[in-house]
Amino acid sequence: MFMGSLQVVDLANNRIVSSHEEEHYIRAVTALPGRNQVIYGTNGGRVRVFDLESGRVAMKLPGHTAPVYTIAVSGDGRVAVSAAQDHTLRVWDLARAVELTSFRGEWNMRSAAISEDCRTIVAGDWLGRLHFLVIERELAGGPAFH
Fold this sequence. Notes:
The protein has 146 residues and is mainly beta.
């Protein structure tokens, strides 16, 4: 049984153009700048990139084990950050469909934002604390937090 649904609606004609069913509720969604795609997170911990033209999942980004509460995307659409109930932030390279790095907090991560230059991530946890994460250097697999 499907619990979540992502619908593409033609607002000018008030009709559904396409629909994508998800096994879990979709909790977070944001558009990818300069692309006809959205990235979403589910109650089941899934993070997916959905192509609005084809009506199909274009990318699967595994890693979270609990509900994804929010997804932030860099201004250029190359990097995304997902925050989840599993106490983690995950940073994604959307061009390569890989996780660059992750951060584990003490409590559920509830919100996230990424700076214009992709060097700073601000995240909020369940207790209302803010975490400022600075990407200080490049590693073989991507940036590292300080």
